[in-house]
């Protein structure tokens, strides 16, 4: 079969959508939540309706409104009260829960208000009650509850520095947890001994419960010392607001208490279950790729590192396939995913997927027929309206024709504008789910 760039891009997009569809909030919640024989089953936990007091449904994260919608459909009139905090544009109509939208990835005033309301709602719970949480990535930025002495502006500035320095989400959330009254398990301090059960859609490498949305219902394995180490490592210690520095120093000296740790009695009635992961999405993408006639290989669901470096490795494997039919015979499709980082040096507009695609285009200029799609499964890449971008063996040629220099767009972290000019953005709109980023690499004759 003869493949054109257009047909390869179409196939890549179809594979991406299949992956995303497999981790829709509805599917993930339906698999893990049921009402059966007078009991609510969530993950491996079961709560008899007769013995349970009030039932609260809460949610935080980009997928939380859609997750709560599915939970409402199952639990219907059994929910007594609820509140969901999601990112602007990620709402779906809810019947039982109040819905509040807030800023992401930089927290804002609406996030502060919403988090205050969330904490006030769950403080109505008590022994015998059940608090059901729908948690997904994005939850950290959406729930700013700064500790005393730290302002929202301090948190915003700290977040901006952390997002720009190339730190991993594990490192970023270690700091966030230690500046917060809700993150790092502290949500559970407010439920007065009620049962807490969380369904969690994972958007972090390794599916670490204490990292996704800063683990508000999970014991925190990190410390104030780790925060200082991270900030020193990325040379941010002198740049962050003084109030943040002082708070961390007080934590290190023991004047301020640590976040609750795994095994703390606070978590005796708390259960956390992963409801969907990137690995599920990649399996569905793999199935679609095979159906489309490609020899298919999932490389990894744990790709991390600087986006431009990851691009070099993916392109090297794609070119190996093109030249030597290794590790797959053509027509081939390589699938991968994870979360890269971008150390921002320029002032342009972009995201880590578009940055990866731009670097890939440079690496593919000496290849014959390779297409790469890199996109965020949440439908947003960086502070833009695109999910990601396509790069292919001919991108450099086309860019030169219209006078665009890839190197200068890359140096300015201006990948969004580059791919917009070229017409190679992947625009999906909010997908309502969030399991990190996916790369689909198609190699044809
Ligand atoms: N101009 C840019 N080029 C590349 N990456 C960028 C740019 N601006 C911001 N970013 C990256 O975008 C990330 C935030 O984007 P977002 O897609 O919202 O992340 P997430 O899906 O993890 O919430 C930050 O980690 C930041 O490094
Ligand atoms: O909320 C968070 O802490 C992170 C990880 O879960 O999500 P996002 O990268 O989407 O902001």
From TrEMBL:
Transmembrane segments: none annotated. Residues 12-249 form the MOFRL-associated domain. It comes from the Bacteria. GO terms for molecular function: ATP binding; glycerate 2-kinase activity; glycerate kinase activity. Its EC number is 2.7.1.165. GO terms for cellular component: cytoplasm. Keywords: ATP-binding, Kinase, Nucleotide-binding, Transferase. InterPro entries: GK-like_C_sf, GK_N_sf, MOFRL, MOFRL_assoc_dom, MOFRL_protein. Residues 332-437 form the MOFRL domain. Coiled coil: none annotated. PANTHER family: GLYCERATE KINASE (PTHR12227:SF0). This is Glycerate 2-kinase. It comes from Desulfamplus magnetovallimortis. The gene is gck.
């Amino acid at each position: 079969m003869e493949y054109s760039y257009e047909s390869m891009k179409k196939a890549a997009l179809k594979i991406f959508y299949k992956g995303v569809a497999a981790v829709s909030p509805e599917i993930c919640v339906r698999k893990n939540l049921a009402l059966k024989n007078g009991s609510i089953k969530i993950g491996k936990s079961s709560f008899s309706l007769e013995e349970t007091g009030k039932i609260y449904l809460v949610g935080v994260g980009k997928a939380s409104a859609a997750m709560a919608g599915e939970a409402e459909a199952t639990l219907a009139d059994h929910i007594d009260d609820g509140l969901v905090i999601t990112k602007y544009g990620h709402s779906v109509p809810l019947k039982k829960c109040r819905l509040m939208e807030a800023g992401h990835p930089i927290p804002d005033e609406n996030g502060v208000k919403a988090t205050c309301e969330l904490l006030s709602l769950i403080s109505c719970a008590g022994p015998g009650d059940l608090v059901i949480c729908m948690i997904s990535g994005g939850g950290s930025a959406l729930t700013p509850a700064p500790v005393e002495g730290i302002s929202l502006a301090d948190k915003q500035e700290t977040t901006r520095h952390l997002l720009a320095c190339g730190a991993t989400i594990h490192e970023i959330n270690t700091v966030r947890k230690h500046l917060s009254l809700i993150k790092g398990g502290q949500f559970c301090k407010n439920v007065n001994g009620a049962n807490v059960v969380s369904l969690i859609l994972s958007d972090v490498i390794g599916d670490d419960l204490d990292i996704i949305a800063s683990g508000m219902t999970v014991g925190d394995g990190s410390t104030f010392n780790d925060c200082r180490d991270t900030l020193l490592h990325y040379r941010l210690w002198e740049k962050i607001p003084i109030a943040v520095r002082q708070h961390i120093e007080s934590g290190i000296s023991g004047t301020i208490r640590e976040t609750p740790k795994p095994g703390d009695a606070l978590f005796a009635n708390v259960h956390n279950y992963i409801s969907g992961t990137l690995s599920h999405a990649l399996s569905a993408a793999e199935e679609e790729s095979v159906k489309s006639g490609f020899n298919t290989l999932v490389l990894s669901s744990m790709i991390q590192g600087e986006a431009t470096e990851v691009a070099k490795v993916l392109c090297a494997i794609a070119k190996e396939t093109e030249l030597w039919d290794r590790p797959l015979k053509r027509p081939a499709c390589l699938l991968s995913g994870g979360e890269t980082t971008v150390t921002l040096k320029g002032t342009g507009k972009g995201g880590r997927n578009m940055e990866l695609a731009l670097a890939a285009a440079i690496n593919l200029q000496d290849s014959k027929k390779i297409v790469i799609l890199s996109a965020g499964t949440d439908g947003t890449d960086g502070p833009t309206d695109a999910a990601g971008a396509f790069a292919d063996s001919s991108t450099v040629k086309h860019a030169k024709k219209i006078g665009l220099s890839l190197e200068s767009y890359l140096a300015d972290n201006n990948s969004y504008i580059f791919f917009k000019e070229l017409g190679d953005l992947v625009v999906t709109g909010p997908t309502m789910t969030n399991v990190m980023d996916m790369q689909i690499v198609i190699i044809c004759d």
